[in-house]
Structure formats: C-alpha cells, structure tokens
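If your schedule permits, I should be very grateful for your opinion on a structural question. The matter concerns a single protein, recorded as an amino acid sequence and a row of backbone structure tokens. Could you please explain, in whatever detail you think fit, how the structure tokens follow from the sequence? I set the record out below, with my sincere thanks for your time.

——
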Amino acid sequence: MRELSNQQTEALLAQAIDRSVPDLYEAVSSATVERESTLEVLPPASTKKKKVRPVYKAALGLCACLALILSLGSYQFFKAAAVIGLDVNPSVEVVANRFDRVLSVHPLNADGEVILADMDLKYVDLDTAINAIVGSMVLNGYFTPGDNVAMLVSVSGGSDAANDEMRHRVAMDIEQAVTASGGSVAILTQNATIPDSVSGEEQTLSSVQDRAKQNGISYGMQVFLDRLLALDPTLDEGELITMSLSEIAQLVQQRGLDLGLIVDYDSDDSTRENIEDFIEDVDEDHWEQSSQQGSTPSGQDTITAEQAKSAALTHAGVDAADAVFLKVEPEWDDGQARYEVEFYAGNVEYDYEIDAVTGAVLSFDRDIENYVIPTTPVTSDELISMDEAKQIALGQAPEGTTVVQCELDRDDGRYRYELELRNGRTEYECEIDAVTGAVLKWESDYDD
C-alpha cells in the first residue's frame, strides 16, 4: 500500500475543488442594484376591504410559475443521467445526474467495498468523486510508480454522444489524478448502453419466447443471453446455449465483463449465482404474468388453473361441490412452472403443488382443523406397521424409488410415520397417519 504525500493530496483536492466550486464573484459584483428614490408614507389603517391590484396578481402568478420550475428542477436533480463503471479490479459504479452531481456509488465486488470504505460521496460534484475514488485506489496500492495499470471505464444511461463525452471527461479525471500521484494508467473505455431491443422495450414478449423455444432454453435464459451478447457482440449465441451456467460464468470472468450492467448484481454472490438469480426472477415474472396464455417460459404447453384444481381434487378424493378454494395461483420454483392450490373440505385444509406442464401432484399437505386429542391412549396394536407405511409411501412415488428413512413420531397426541425416499436426484418427504394409513403430507424436491 502506498501513501500520497501531502503535496500530492493537496494537488488532488485543489483540482477537485476548482471543478466543483463555481466562481460567483464576477456575476455578483457586476449585478445592478437599484435603490428606491423615495420613501412611501403608509396611509392610516382602513377597515375597508381593498381590491387586489393587478401587479399582485402578476406576482402571485410568477410565484406559482417559480414553484413549478423548482419542482421540475427537483425531479431532474434526482433523475439518473449517467451510470459510470470504474474497473481495475476493484469495481465501482457511480450514478450521476444531469447536473454532474453524484446520486449514488456502489461497490461491485469485495475490493470495491474496500476502496469506498466509509466515503460518503452522495450529491458530491462528479469530478470530486472520481478524484476521491482514484485517490483511494492509489492509497490501497492499485497504482504504483513504474507500473502502467489498465483501467476500464464504462458509461451508459445517455445518448451515444453524451456517453462519449462523459467517458472522455472521466478518463481525463482519472489520468490527471493518477499522474499527480506518480503512477501511470492505460484507460480503456466502452459504451455500455444496452439497446432497447435487448432490454425488452422494443422486442415483443412472443418474439423472445419464440427464440427461447427454438433454442431449447427458458425465457429468462434467452433474455440474459440477449443482454450478454449486447454487452460483448463477439460472443456466439450458438455456443452460449450449449454451455452450462458455470461455463458461462467462467467466460464472463475471463473476459472481464461487467455483469452489473445487465443484471441486478449482488457482490456477496458469485458470478454464477447472480446469473441464476436473474434468470429465475425473469422466468418467475414471465410465468406469473403469462400463465393464462398456456405456456411456460421455455415454451411448453401448460394446463389451466381449472385443470390444476381438478387434479388436486381428484388426488384428495374430494368432490368439487364440497370444496371451498382459497387460492389457485401460478408459481415458479426451481426452474419449474407449477400451480399452488389451497382449499377446504369439511374441517380439513389441503395444500397442493401441481406441475403446470404434466398436471402431476408435486407435493401436498392436509391438516385437520379443530383436531381433538384422543382421551384414551392409542395402543401399538392399533398402529399400522412400519413396512405397511413404507408400502403406502412407495405407492405414491414412481417406480424405482427407495425408502431412505422411516420413523414413528407422535405429535399432538397423533401418531404418524415420517419417511424420506429417493429416486435418482429426486428426494421425497412423506407423512402417514399411523392409525388410518392416510397420507398426510407429500413433498418432492429435485437435488441439483
């Protein structure tokens, strides 16, 4: 770690302050000051109501206009005009408004958090903020005399011309700050604006979904690949769709791509986790909004909500006339489209998860309301055997499933068998009433 000398620090601060503090002396000293030539003698107080003079009306109108202008100015002040990425590997993102004031600064990785430390740069002049960030990079040893360090500057948020101007300005700030500290920097710049057609504002949902179906991937994966290709046009979509998420994450890291420009990046997560979260969120939103169209984010045909209700009722052995439905909602979980179904029949509450593609029961749970604990203890002779419980559970699962664990448990005076089963990479959990043999709970989970 290298510390700046007092002279170097003063030079950086002076440069930043010169840019951020306007020189108002000339404007103020040249302003014309008018003096009233006579004093107005106030008339005696009158009880008569005076008419509002036209000049006062004009003044009131002027005040209203001024208030409107100020409110519009306030809106523009808090509106982001440029997003600036600084990457050495600390990676830092700066958001500025049209008045060149910083609205927020975000670290994009752990090193970026070290660089920003406790600095509060909100509403600071942009040039001052850039100097402060670069100064912290110098103090933390990222620029040393004799080394020519590469730094990537990315700008998005404005027009191409505005982005070009901002990149040039920021690059000059960085070069001057590093040079003043005795270091050397090679600045690489790029326009990181993602075309509207890639972000989905011009493309229709159906066109993206059609390409996702053609490529055999989910809607969310297609949206991510579109954004990634816009970020680095040298990538090949045909190769990307054959790669695993781990391989794509490794490629993103190898190429030094700023993932924060195309996804909501969480520096606490790995590159792969950020990609997975983005795809999962997009697929979930897409499925919940388009479930009535009868297709999943990957283009598969789906059942309707009414068919999901029917599947749950059939499995529960309940007539539709006896059921009161609480919820039938589309849900996206672990890359799978499903319906969540809840209903009452008598004093029993049923919770189901139905596969939205096949109509299969993925999980279910039933709870008896107002259950009365037996006053006489249940004897062992009244319980079904463990082997019988295993056979009942295996009857719920596909062929080839094995029982991993089975144990008898007593809860609220009610005996039940709790079982764990496995078939390949799919795990099942099951609860069976130890007296009646009824399946009380069934859940499946795919271990990826």
Observations:
- Residues 232 and 275 are 16 Å apart (CA to CA).
